[in-house]
Amino acid sequence: MNDDEQFAQSLRTQATRVAPQIDVDVTRVVPAARRRRAARVGGVTLAMGLALGGGAWAATTMEPPGTALPGGSMAMAVEPSPEPSGPPVTSSEGDRLTDAPDNLPGGPVVPPEDWRDATYFHVVTRNESAKQGEEVDGYTPLGIERWYGDGVNFELRSSGPALRDVTGYLGMEGAEPISFTWAEIAALPTEPAALHDALLDTFEPTGMAEDAALNGTARLITDAPAPPEVRAAAWELLTSLSAVDVEQDVQDSEGRTGTAATFELWDRTTTVIYDEGQNLPLESEESIGKMHSLETFLRTEFVPLPDEVADSAIEIPDFTGMTREDAEVACLAKHLACTFEDTESDTVPAGTVVSSDPQAGALVSWGAPVTLLLSTGS
After folding, report:
1. N- to C-terminal Cα distance for the chain?
2. Residue 362 contacts residue 370 (beta carbons within 8 Å)
3. Helices (DSSP H) in the chain: which residue ranges?
4. Where is the PASTA domain (predicted)?
């Protein structure tokens, strides 16, 4: 019996327990995350990795399954997420990936309606860090592979893809933190002088606009979803600034040749190596005292989101109008920890769902808590 058949059998047993009067073909509600399809993007080798790694998700229920809650309601039990059955997934460049569940969203992600078909900023890097003069036995670089979207982000981990927090870009802390959104970066000027003025104006409230603009210019080149025209303007601006030393024909750690721009800012020295012909970053190196970090850019591209990555998120179904029994079956099928609460309603028939929290269409991970309001009538 394969994984899908085992899941269907388990779901059939639970569906019979909670809704014996309903005839449910549970083989048709196996989650889309189990139906892996080959990636549409050339060079992305997630399909094999996910088949081996199982694409596991950590359960994030806020209440233990089956726990009685105030008011006599009950959190539905959720099957544990599947354990990986093969070797860990690696990045599309073959590097090891993190196991740490950090940078997870603080709550459900409400994406744009067309999030599956939108364009994403796909970045694959190889990262190393060390203390000067020290070598760690057995140390291997860490791979990072991410898809940044306008409202929803993903990161590939050793167990498979996972939702990532949606962050701002070019951020600066202060009394009123400043950061750019995806749309604001896309709207930046593509002429170097105008770009410089726009950055200065934005960072003026920080009291260190020039330094912030220098830092922002470097970030536009490396780890922000800047359109190619904005990135080219940022590189031209960076290499024109008096605080920046420029050196031609420099090789990065991968043996690729580019132009290096080096500057000192705050407590660190930064060197960015850039391929001017292809308008792409190659490497970013930072030194803070004896600490040294190196980020090598292996891919920086705007691409469609691979199906394997999109399918890894669980989309909250529209529970509105379902009976409790139907909603329980849907919760089991989606691996959600649902809790039912009664509420009066003049418009929704008694015994059916009025609304859900999170709302329909929100993206969550396996085992996420969902509250369903059940009408008691008027």
Report:
1. 48
2. no
3. 3-18, 46-53, 182-186, 192-203, 209-221, 228-238, 307-310, 324-334
4. 311-376
Joined together, the tokens standing for residue 334 give 């989606």
Give the per-residue pLDDT at 318.
97
pLDDT at 16: 43
Query: Coil, strand, or helix at residue 46?
Result: helix
Alpha-helical regions (H) of 266-349: 307-310, 324-334
**Nearest-angstrom CA–CA distance, 369 and 61:** 5
Cβ neighbours of 337 (radius 10 Å) = 24
Cα separation of 165 and 155, whole Å?
Answer: 9
Structural tokens at position 174: 């202060």
Please state the separation of Cα 134 from the chain's center in Å: 33
43: left (phi over 0), alpha (psi -120 to 50) or beta: left
For residue 336, what are its two tokens?
Answer: 């959600």
What is the structure's pLDDT at 96?
Answer: 94
**CATH number for the segment(s) 3-39+57-84+314-375:** 3.30.10.20
User: Which portions of the chain are predicted below pLDDT 50?
Assistant: 2-72
The CA distance from 336 to 256, in Å, is: 47
pLDDT value at position 78? 82
Q: Would you say 82 and 50 are in contact if contact means Cβ atoms under 8 Å apart? A: no
Question: What's the one-letter identity of residue 44?
Answer: V
C-alpha closest to that of 180 among 207, 150, 156: 150
Residue type, 241: L
What's the CA gap between 23 and 79, in Å, rounded? 22
CA distance to 40, 75, 194, 325, per residue, from 55 (Å)? 18, 25, 45, 29
Q: Under DSSP, is residue 162 helix (H, G, I), strand (E, B) or coil? A: strand
Cα dihedral sign for 294, 298, 303, 304?
Answer: negative
| Domain residue ranges in the chain | 3-39+57-84+314-375, 119-304
pLDDT reported for residue 213: 96
Structure tokens at 149: 């979207």
What single string gives the DSSP state of each residue in 206-234?
A: GT-HHHHHHHHHHHHHTTS---HHHHHHH
